[in-house]
Write a structure and sequence with these properties.
Layout: H1 3-6, H2 11-32, H3 50-58, H4 61-73, E1 79-92, E2 95-105, E3 110-119, E4 125-129, E5 134-137, H5 138-144
Antiparallel strand pairs: 1-2, 2-3, 3-4, 4-5
């Protein structure tokens, strides 16, 4: 017999089948590759209006206490209030803040008690400390105030 005759007739068919399966396996592997995850969506904090910033500041427990003390000691002649120091926002580390102050509002004058920076986006409230020319977080400020006491109008 010749050498050709010694090759099994199904061998070329098996070789062709192996090549086809290998190619199909590669195609399948290509299809099964994990798709990259979509970029994470960073939600930006909602913008806050000046009025909302003032309301948030008046909701600070220490300022509620101050307001009640002012009302009580003045027998209703003076009130706690929030006023805007400067309509231009102050920027700190790329974040914009309303410049507001808590004041004792009397019939003849207004006395500033504390200056605050309220973020235009998010819920951050900072305390502007003019004595040290620094800005404190609300938590730092709370640790530094001894007692919430005010002398109010007569």
């Amino acid at each position: 017999m010749s050498r050709r005759a010694a090759i099994h007739p199904s061998l070329p068919l098996l070789a062709a089948l192996a090549v086809a399966l290998a190619a199909a396996g590669c195609k399948r592997a290509e299809r099964e590759e994990p798709k990259p995850a979509p970029a994470a969506v960073v939600k930006e904090a909602p913008a806050r209006s000046r009025e909302q910033a003032m309301e948030a500041l008046l909701a600070v427990p220490e300022l509620k206490t101050w307001s009640a003390q002012i009302e009580k000691r003045s027998k209703g002649k003076a009130h706690g209030a929030v006023i805007e120091d400067d309509p231009a926002p102050r920027e700190i580390n790329g974040k914009r803040y309303y410049q507001l102050s808590f004041v004792e509002n009397r019939a003849n004058d207004v006395r500033r008690r504390e200056s605050f920076l309220v973020s235009q986006q998010g819920d951050e409230i900072l305390v502007d400390d003019p004595e040290t020319d620094s800005v404190l977080s609300l938590q730092e400020w709370r640790r530094n105030i001894e007692r919430v006491q005010l002398k109010s109008a007569d």
